[in-house]
Design a protein that fits this description.
This protein has about 170 residues and is mainly alpha-helical. The protein is built from 3 helices and 2 strands, in the order αβααβ. The chain has 2 domains: about 100 residues; about 70 residues, Membrane-bound Lytic Murein Transglycosylase D, Chain A (Roll), CATH 3.10.350.10. About 70% of the residues lie in helices and about 5% in strands. The longest helix has about 100 residues.
């Protein structure tokens, strides 16, 4: 047994050296690979930092855009409310103006009460009907055409005008 063990022991140091050399080569390769990994990791950390910065910018931009959208919607609502208010006021003003226009188109019929004893007084641009007056006589006397006289008095029934009634005179 002694001889077998001595013979096997002579190979043991050579095997140890071979295992050591292999381990040394593996360790060197691992160190080189680790260096490459560390460089790649450093590069990726820079990229991750840039991405984190972009993410914060995107978040703040999104918040700003959301606030702008809310402000725009509020402005649109207030503008619409203002338009609605103005439209209502314009409708009121239009109705009042229409009443004034219609009142201006109606002829002034009587200055005083008939039979009250008060004489009718003609204002500027008016004529008080006297006994025997017709539209043609009034137009001739005032130096205007009958068509102009009729056009400024659209509501007057010329066959039924009475003494004391007032009619408008056209401008000469």
């Amino acid at each position: 047994m002694d001889t077998i063990s001595r013979e096997n022991n002579s190979m043991l140091p050579v095997g140890g050296i071979i295992v050591g050399v292999v381990a040394l080569l593996l360790g060197g390769y691992a160190a080189i690979s680790l260096s490459k990994v560390n460089k790649a990791l450093a590069t990726h950390e820079e990229k991750i930092a840039k991405i984190d910065g972009m993410e914060s910018q995107v978040t703040s931009t999104a918040a700003t855009a959301e606030k702008a959208a809310k402000d725009g919607a509020a402005l649109a609502r207030s503008t619409q409310d203002a338009f609605n208010t103005v439209a209502g006021e314009l409708a009121t003003q239009r109705a009042a103006l229409t009443k004034f226009e219609e009142a201006a188109k109606k002829p002034v019929v009587v200055a005083g009460k008939k039979g009250s004893g008060e004489p009718a007084v003609a204002g500027s641009g008016e004529y008080v009907i006297k006994k025997g007056d017709t539209g043609a006589k009034i137009a001739r006397a005032q130096g205007v055409t009958l068509a102009d006289l009729i056009s400024v008095n659209p509501g007057v029934n010329w066959s039924k005008v009475g003494v004391g009634d007032k009619v408008k005179l056209p401008k000469k």
